[in-house]
Amino acid sequence: MAKASLKQQILEAGHDLIWAGGYAATGVRDIVAAAKAPQGSFTNHFRSKEDFALEVLDRYFAYVQGLVAEALGDAAQPPTARLKRYLDLITTKLAEADFARGCLIGNFSLETAGTSERLRARLSDIFVLWRQPFADCIAEAQAAGEITDAFAADDLADFLLASWQGAMLRMKVDRSPAPLERFKSIALATIFGKTRP
């Protein structure tokens, strides 16, 4: 009988370690120890730690895409309500980690974009893919007169994601939801709300 693959176990353990402690601080030995797997099982599935990180990143982004679809996909709700729903949903998820972990995509962006060209390129692709459902929702809101059309929907979507990442960064420093709530109240009352900038 063939031995069961430990790949998923290793990915899950590594995901948790990297999210909690960062990419640089997480060694392959730490990952296999947390997965209760032999050292050789890592190299059986991944050519390098960088290859491993790319899979972790893709798995996390698939999870994020599910959250985006859950929040933005309800066409019965006005577009701006769907944007707020996404921000509130993420705030709830961040609270589960006591506002200490932030977004794994943002964490990878800060830590690896300057040291790994492969991770930087994948992160760039992820942000383009991540932007699209927000741009679509914003364009719908612009057509309905809910959001200013002074800026392109793609640019507003980029602004939203980048600013939200910044709020999460400050949240991690303060270990508080206050930066998230501040961002939501200002952004949703001005550029993403009825009041025009």
Explain the overall architecture.
- The protein is mainly alpha-helical and 197 residues long.
- Helices cover 72% and strands 0% of the residues.
- The protein has nine helices and no strands.
- It has helices at residues 7-21, 28-35, 39-45, 49-72, 79-95, 104-112, 117-143, 153-174, 178-189.
- The radius of gyration is 19 Å and the shape is elongated.
- It starts with 6 loop residues before the first helix and ends in an 8-residue tail after the last helix.
- The mean pLDDT is 93.
Write down the Rg.
19 Å
Helix content: over 70%
Major sheet: size, sense and barrel closure? none
| Class based on secondary structure composition and strand pairing | mainly alpha
> Total strand count, please?
0
How many helices? The count is: 9
Low-confidence stretches: none
Overall morphology: elongated
Give the mean pLDDT. 93
Alpha-carbon distance between the termini? 66 Å
String of helices and strands: HHHHHHHHH
Q: Proportion of β residues?
A: under 5%
Gist of the model:
By secondary structure, the chain is mainly alpha-helical. The chain has helices at 7-21, 28-35, 39-45, 49-72, 79-95, 104-112, 117-143, 153-174, 178-189.
Features:
9 helices
Write the layout of secondary structure elements.
Blueprint: H1 7-21, H2 28-35, H3 39-45, H4 49-72, H5 79-95, H6 104-112, H7 117-143, H8 153-174, H9 178-189
Helix pairs in contact: 1-2, 1-4, 4-5, 4-7, 5-7, 6-7, 7-8, 8-9
